[in-house]
Specification:
The protein has eleven helices and eleven strands. It has two domains: 127 residues, Rossmann fold; 195 residues, Rossmann fold. By secondary structure, it is of the alpha/beta class. Helix 1 links the parallel strand 1 and strand 2. A six-stranded parallel beta sheet has the order 7-8-6-9-10-11, sandwiched between helices. The protein has a five-stranded parallel beta sheet with strand order 2-1-3-4-5, with helices on both faces. The longest helix is centred in the C-terminal third of the chain and has 15 residues. Helix 1 runs parallel beside helix 6 and helix 3 packs parallel to helix 4. Helix content is 33%, strand content 15%. The relative contact order is 0.12.
């Protein structure tokens, strides 16, 4: 069964309401896709399915597939992310069961739903649809030509530091002020939340910058494109995607995302997390290749593992170090970062 391209999709292509599939997710981070949907699209989420070894929850009702369908779920979202983006045998069996119960299935993993004959056959037999959010469209090679419009890109010291959440929080704050601002999704969770986007880590390397030029074309309405960052320039596994984003976005502004006290780069115990000043300098240097006027406007800290006093202290220290407003988007919002953005970038 053919998969729908994420770049042209909206919520009607993977129709809500959703059952969120957690399977046997080993920790909270593994379920970040499901958690993002509950955070930003709660009205679409009717329940979660957890396997017997699941070690996390996104705090919606537990349901089996028949119960979810009876509750109105139209699509099961594979709400987990793992190294390599693979579908294990248990997940394949569960997806078949969800199709048999009458739901469509959408996944953002690297391993395509359509690569499993038993899944394809179950979809055909039940007249259900499969959606692969990591099925990128054809995009051009980047050309670096300046284009109209204003753009902000979130960057990070490491993977999973809150770039998607920060970008969505910026969109919410800016729209609340009556500004035109649009979230541009580049990862599976963001694509499911926004209903469209480009899975940039599934794009052939030569086309990454062109993919972002395509995702964020010129605009003439005075609004902002807020582009979800990925990876880190300092992560040996994923720096290529981060560099392509910086060049293709041509950002006017950067927001640096960081988790204080993280012991090492995600998945690489032998690599320390870089310091804020070094990270920001490297990202600005890369961004200024295609936009010499790119500046930093704020720091977004993920202080979820700190108590309130330590969280406030971490924000003050980052602010003193870089001379930029530093906020935890979850605890504090992003109003001061938006203030600095509007003060610093000409309309």
């Amino acid at each position: 069964m053919p998969s729908t391209s994420a770049a042209t999709a909206d919520a009607s292509h993977w129709p809500p309401p959703f059952l969120l599939y957690l399977g046997n997710a080993p920790d909270d981070l593994a379920a970040k896709t499901a958690r993002g949907l509950v955070q930003f699209r709660p009205e679409w989420c009717v329940g979660q399915f957890r396997g017997p070894e699941c070690r996390t929850s996104v705090d919606v009702p537990d349901m089996d597939f028949a119960q979810a369908r009876a509750a109105g779920a139209n699509t099961m979202i594979v709400g987990v992310a793992n190294a390599g983006g693979r579908l294990g045998p248990d997940s394949v069996a569960d997806i078949v069961a969800a199709l048999e119960a009458g739901m469509n299935v959408a996944s953002g993993l690297h391993e395509r739903l359509g690569s499993h004959p038993q899944i394809v056959e179950a979809a055909r037999r039940n007249n259900r649809h499969l959606f692969d959010a990591r099925n990128p469209p054809a995009t051009p090679v980047g050309n670096g030509l300046r284009r109209a419009g204003r753009r902000l890109l979130t960057v990070g010291t490491d993977c999973s530091t809150g770039k998607m959440y920060t970008t969505l929080a910026l969109e919410t704050e800016m729209r609340a002020r009556g500004l035109k601002a649009d979230f541009r999704a580049t990862g599976q969770t963001g694509i499911f939340i926004a209903g469209r986007g480009i899975p940039i880590d599934a794009v052939v390397a030569d086309f990454i910058s062109g993919g972002i030029e395509w995702l964020s074309p010129e605009r003439h309405d005075g609004g902002w494109d807020l582009i979800e960052g990925q990876g880190s320039l300092f992560h040996p596994s994923y720096a290529g995607v981060s560099m392509g984003l910086l060049h293709g976005a041509q950002p006017d502004a950067l927001v640096l995302c960081h988790e204080p006290n993280r012991p090492h780069m995600r998945g690489l115990g032998h690599y320390p997390v870089p310091d804020l000043r070094t990270t920001l300098a490297a990202n600005l240097a890369a961004a200024q290749l295609t936009n010499p006027e790119a500046i930093a406007v704020g720091v977004a800290l993920n202080t979820s593992k700190l108590d309130p006093a330590d969280a406030a202290r971490a924000c003050r220290e980052a602010e003193d170090l870089l001379g930029l407003p530093a906020q935890d988007p979850v605890r504090d919002g992003v109003a001061r970062i938006v203030d600095r953005l509007l003060e610093s970038v000409p309309c």
